[in-house]
Amino acid sequence: MVEKQELVRMLIEALSFEEVTVSGRLQAFLREVKGSELDEMARSQIERKFGRMLEETIRHSKMLTEMVKRVMKSEQGEF
Amino acid sequence: MNKASSERLLTLVEEILDQEKRAKELYGEYIRRIEDRSIVEGLKRILNDEEEHIRLASEVLGLIKYGSSYSRLRDGLNGFSEASSILISCDIENYLKVNMIVLKNLVNEKGFKCIYVAVNKPVSSLVEAFKREGIDTDKLSFIECTTVGTETEKRILVKPDNLTDMNMSISRLIEETPGKKIVYLDAVSTLYVFNSGNVVERFTHHLVSSTKLKGTGLILVAINEEIEKRSIAVLTTFCDSKIDV
Predict the structure, then answer these.
(1) pTM of this prediction?
(2) Which of A15, A66, B182, B201 could make an S-S bridge to B217, C-beta 3.0–4.6 Å?
């Protein structure tokens, strides 16, 4: 069981990790891959795999934002 | 690709892989602490994605390290099971990469024990290279084709022109190795240097049948520069499938 304030802190920590750290690194990596001398087949596979990871990371941010909103609005003290 | 660029990309992917592992730990800890069902369900969905991201980032690491041969091999090994036999045909420049990718996939990831028949290189240098690449060498036992050195519990010596002896040593190690296992013949093409084509092909045919009967997987590596096309065609007909790298 976690207190409301603690849960908000945890969710915001995860949100910031997804939104800033992971998303940022994935975008930077995809930029590097575009300008690299990787063979075409390897590059397209990497772009596909990391493109999917980026999309899902953005979806995680949205899900975590919704969770924060829901917890903030809730009158529950513990979760 | 030049070395600096490849190392830069490798560093970035390793960082991303570490982040995904950290994220997995973070969500795992949250799920253990939080009891609210709706929050936990959402976090579990994210955790599943993180596990998939670890797999994707590991594959990308392999692609950068080994190039597109990595994907061809991994795809070819997808359906590999006990009693499968696969011929891998590669150029000499890809030969070491092939060994590393296959052993990482079958030994480290799929948990096969491996009876490694080292025709080309001394076992000591192979073990060193495998350790550097993070391959679990505890799961490997060796048959070394050489005329010098001493045998140990996990290293049997045979002469490359004595295929009867090699066959008996392989059978002995199959019997002594518990659990799911593979025989990895590195490289069947080199046997043609020491034996006539007919002899190698009879030996290989017997090896494919006997490993299948014993529920043991078999990987045969053929280096294109060492073998005639006719022989590759013959070996292909013996095996369940062939991967060209």
Answers:
(1) 0.72
(2) B182
